[in-house]
Design goal:
nine-stranded mixed β-sheet; 20 strands; 38% helix; 21% strand; globular; Starch_synth_cat_dom; EC 2.4.1.21; Glyco_trans_1; alpha-1,4-glucan glucosyltransferase (ADP-glucose donor) activity
């Protein structure tokens, strides 16, 4: 079995702040079926080592960016984890990137240390294990392929962009602290407008670049999406591949989900019972015949939260309701609270993060709203499809790749699985909501779309096969 080392800042079930963790945590098991053994290297944040079984130290460094460090090999479930223990970098209160006072000031060094250790293990091995390929994720893992290249190592590497908006940008004065060669500080290296971009370091040195959807790979070559690095992506277009994310279709399964009343594509009667429970949980009016729509999201401009008011007005005017779960920017939280105050009994809002509640929301709602301005892949719409909760999405990134918009052609061909709107503005979103309500009013069409959505192949098998094929191509080179 061939070996791959995955380098990331988070992975389910050990630590999660977003979709990155879901992907990193799902890939090892999915790739095992493709003949690849994947180990995940991530920081040993406080409490991580306590959750690993049968740990052994397989690598050490007496001075890793300011202090001693060890890599502990252990398991969580079926996933083999190489946890980098460096107390001076990771043993602190708060999340992986910040505490109550904001981002940690040494994040650049913290994740450079992770990449340095990963590159060392990739070059030299750890005990009797050495990878055939190194797979880095986002800016936190981006220096791993860079350190390999700067050391002259021939081991193939790739980097996956989960969100181009986060680039690990720091001042050029950190060059020495990050152990970066001065001669690579130029426009074709890791220099970015006079600063260091650790993400750019990985993009210019990895043998392949992947994004989490094919559409996002194309979008990143354009200025409106590339975040200043569109030229780098365009220049390396020949090695850029879009591989769509999957979801854990065992965890997200309406037939076995412990958070809801069971239902399936062959027996959808439980859906109406979940709907009534959701109405009660959000204190919505009980006699709502029109769409019960949900939004489960970070509340930020990227997610299109500022576009909501006209669409919600349309939904309420048509007799529908909205249940919303999320947290984020203060202005966005104020905006959605204002909608709840304006439309009592029709708009219900919960500020915060609640995984269990999100399952109940998908199980009980008719539709899920995802009006993002950009979306590398998106998992919310995939959960919606799985639960027959039809997505209303903007035509960007992975949203466009996974939802077949209801058009005369797709409806006639019995292919539609949701509503897609474009451009990403308030008018188009309102029109999308109007179309959603019209479709919902025709129970025959709506039920057919719902069952079609639930039959979508959303698991990891196809995506894992594409990653495995890419690894093979890199080895063949």
């Amino acid at each position: 079995m061939k070996r791959v080392l995955s380098v990331a800042s988070e992975a389910v079930p050990l630590v999660k702040t977003g979709g990155l963790a879901d992907v990193v945590g799902a890939l090892p098991e999915a790739l095992a079926g493709q003949g690849w053994e994947m180990r995940v290297m991530l920081p040993a944040y406080r409490g991580v080592l306590d959750r690993l079984a049968a740990t052994t130290v397989v690598w050490s460094d007496p001075d890793l960016f300011g202090g001693p460090a060890e890599v502990h090999l252990g398991k969580v479930g079926t996933m083999e984890v190489m946890a980098l223990s460096a107390p001076h970098l990771y043993d602190r209160a708060g999340g992986p990137y910040s505490d109550l006072h904001g981002d940690f000031g040494d994040n650049a060094e913290r994740f450079a240390a992770l990449c340095w250790a990963a590159a060392a293990v990739a070059r030299e091995g750890a005990e009797d294990w050495r990878p055939d390929v190194l797979h880095a994720h986002d800016w936190q893992g981006a220096l791993a392929p860079a350190y390999l290249r700067y050391a002259g190592a021939s081991l193939p590497s790739l980097i996956t962009i989960h969100n181009m908006a986060f680039q690990g940008r720091v001042g050029a004065d950190k060059m020495g602290a990050l152990r970066l060669p001065r001669e690579a500080f130029h426009r074709d290296g890791y220099e970015f407008w006079g600063d260091i971009s650790t993400l750019k370091a990985g993009l210019t040195t990895a043998d392949a670049i992947t994004t989490v959807s094919p559409r996002y790979a194309e979008e990143l070559m354009r200025g409106e999406y590339g975040q200043g690095l569109e030229g780098v992506i365009a220049a390396r277009a020949g090695v850029v591949v879009g591989i769509l994310n999957g979801i854990d279709d065992r965890v997200w399964n309406p037939e076995t989900d412990p958070e809801c009343i069971s239902f399936s594509v062959t027996n959808i009667s439980g859906k109406s019972k979940n709907r009534k429970a959701l109405q009660a949980e959000f204190q919505l009016e009980k006699k709502i015949d029109e769409p019960l729509v949900i939004l489960v999201s970070r509340l930020t401009a990227q997610k299109g939260i500022d576009l909501l008011p006209p669409a919600v007005e349309e939904l309420v005017a048509r007799g529908g309701a909205l249940a919303l779960l999320g947290s984020g920017d203060s202005w966005a939280e104020d905006l959605v609270r204002g909608l709840a105050a304006r439309f009592p009994g029709r708009v219900g809002v919960r500020i915060g993060y609640d995984e269990s509640l999100s399952h109940r929301m998908f199980a009980g709602a008719d539709a899920v709203l995802v009006p993002s301005r950009f979306e590398p892949c998106g998992l919310t719409q995939l959960y919606g499809l799985r639960y027959g909760c039809l997505p209303l999405v903007s035509a960007v990134g992975g949203l466009a790749d996974t939802v077949i918009g209801a058009s005369p052609a797709s409806l006639a061909g019995q292919a539609a699985t949701g509503v897609v709107f474009h451009p990403v503005d308030a008018l188009a979103l309102r029109q999308g909501m109007r179309q959603l309500c019209d479709l919902h009013a025709d129970r025959r069409i709506w039920t057919a779309m719902m069952k079609r959505a639930m039959k979508s192949d959303l698991g990891w098998s196809r995506s894992a096969a594409r990653y495995a094929a890419l690894y093979e191509r890199l080895l063949a080179r």
